[in-house]
Amino acid sequence: MGCEITTKQRAGIINPMYDCQPAGAQYAGIGVKDCIPLVHGGQGCSMFVRLLFAQHFKENFDVASTSLHEDSAVFGGHKRIDDGVLTLVRRYPNLRVIPILTTCSSEVIGDDVEGAVARCNKQIKEEFPDRKVHVVPVHTPSFKSSQVGGYSECMQSIFKTIAATRVEPTGKLNVFPGWVNPGDVVLLKRYFHEMGVDATVFMDTEDFDSPMMPDKSIHTHGRTTVEDVEGSTGAIASLALARYEGASTADYLAKEHDVAAHVVATPYGIGNTDAMLKTISEITGKPIPDSLVKERGIALDALQDLAHMFFADKRVAIFGHPDLVIGLAQFCIEIEMKPVLMLLGDDNSKYKRDPRILALKKDADWDMEVVCNADLWELEKRVKDPDFPIDLILGHSKGRYVAIDANIPMARVGFPTFDRAGLYRQPTMGYQGAMLLAEQIANTMFAHMEFKRDREWILNTW
Fold this sequence. Notes:
Number of helices: 18
Shape: globular
Oligomer: single chain
Largest sheet: 6 strands, parallel
């Protein structure tokens, strides 16, 4: 019994669970207000990622492309950067940030992105002397890491460019939740408000769940402003809720500007949320309010209603972003489920040393497998094995065909989720998120019991 940490043996990828680095960088970029990422690569490098965003959020986002062609492979694509940046600045008078995101093609060509940024800054200053546009070099080659690493790289590059100077103390708390849905951002902001903590969420994606206003105005954009990023250097501390998506930026602020960095387990489930609120209270001196204590109690009551009768000893396979997968595994243990398979989909060597995984490895009294650099074929291979029974799958919509073919119930969580309505506006973090996720899991299992006529009589006596 115990946890085995392995790496996929095959060199190739069959049915990947992640997209590439530029995809994650684009997600970080669109979280900034008055920002349009410029993808330095083929047009598909932005088009297909924008499609994923549109599928998940049912909204449209502005992402530009230098649209490299064959001639760039011979002569270089630096002129495309110059033209792309100047076109954006001329066309969008309110534009303030342009991250230049490299791709596999532009990195292999070897374009001097930093040199292009210097030229663009000079040209912008000459043509628009009264405007300040931050042009940010972001190196995100597609042939290493994944959308997880790309998100982290773009976040850190934006802060290195814009938050280069320390400002006066602001009394605020920097919060880096990582790649999360608008519902999680809204929940976190509510928690800080109820605690009386002045916090800035990076990146603030609340308006990705955008309203349809009577004046037909468009509100689908990030809320994080240039001023927010500049002010991060004067914060009382940084709180990173995602080790692989936000901690690097918190570490940068700590190293360069003496802003204390606190990295906590992503607040999925009761225990991790308790730990997050305790850390916030210790940093700010603010007590945890009764309203959150009551919300915790409601969540505990809801989980208790489901755990022993329906969840106990159910074997769960989880795939997705590392902080999400590890947090969901911890949550499953809280509700008496057994995470037997955790799939992490890129080549980050730090996963095998993650203290949360090592704790699972130490405490698990059942067979558990963590597969690094995995793809969805690893999931399919195991669910087809009669000696490896799976009762539930947790993951995003790309794994649905595995679940359908194996006739295993699957609760959607993570990015992208496009075959269930409205999940992006529901929190997964916090006490409320734990309750909603547990109820989603239960309802998924109930519907499957009815479909298979497998012990559905239990639902009549519950």
